[in-house]
Amino acid sequence: MGTQANTPAPAAVRSFSDVTLGEALPPLTVHVDRARLVQYAGASLDRNRIHWDEPFAKQVGLPDVIAHGMFTMGAAVTLVTDWVGDAGRVVEYGVRFTRPVVVPYDTGADIEVSAIVKSADPETKRVTVELTATTAGEKVLGRALAVAVLD
Amino acid sequence: MPVNADFQGRAYPPTETYRVSAAKIREFAEAVGSADPVHVDADAARARGYADVIAPPTFAVLIAQQCDAQLIRDPEAGIDFSRVVHGEQRFTHHRPLTAGDAVIGTLHVDTVREAGGHAMVTTRTELATEAGEAVCTATSTIVIRGGE
User: Fold this and answer.
1) Which residues of A touch B61 (CB under 8 A)?
2) CATH 3.10.129.10 fits A16-31+68-149, yes or no
3) Which of A2, A22, A32, A114 sits in a 20 to 30 Å window from A51, CA-based?
4) 8 Å CB contact between B56 and B92
């Protein structure tokens, strides 16, 4: 890659040959508060009140407002797309929602995301990454696997 | 059972066209915290071989959930939306959703089953361009909680 003075090199897509099985990706902490959930509700068009209206959430039996599962899923995969170097290289991504992320008004919540390389296919240059997402020490995603095609 | 089991195997007619815009992609990317310029900078996207800015991997849910609404709002299905919890979600991208795409979704009800007093419904939305190019398969499992 060229190194022109004063010009940052464009982010390159990760090379398959640089990946090792079991490799840990740089972890990520996602802070989520009510404002973030309102932002996601508008962006995703999922305006379910359980994600921003505390009295409503409690009325339907939840401990408090909870994050959209799809917010957690979407925020968690940025760890993978940053590592890959191009969000368009993620060809498969699936999760189970095992536990809601409760988002108190005062403090919000932190979602800790980590990931490791589970498998890598040299013929297709596809790597499968397993993600772990926890909040307050409890797993919120299960069977979270993303497949990306590298260079 | 809180869901009509006859719905397994049913397909709904294709939806109206959804037009993917650069503005919605940017809004969605900011909301999930994706800093990849490929979502907001058309030149950066073209430099990587895309026709325009591309959507983050979970953007397709926005279109798929509009398709799912056909089933959830279908009175014959008997789904009480206030008891619905999202159980699983999966995307298979045949290529990235790109600004300018005119996309049609076709909803399939793959399975309706019961487990532990709850009903679980797995739907699959096939997203394709108006020209018929497959773009994304989005699979969702919802859990409809049974009575306490």
Assistant:
1) 44, 70, 74
2) yes
3) A114
4) no
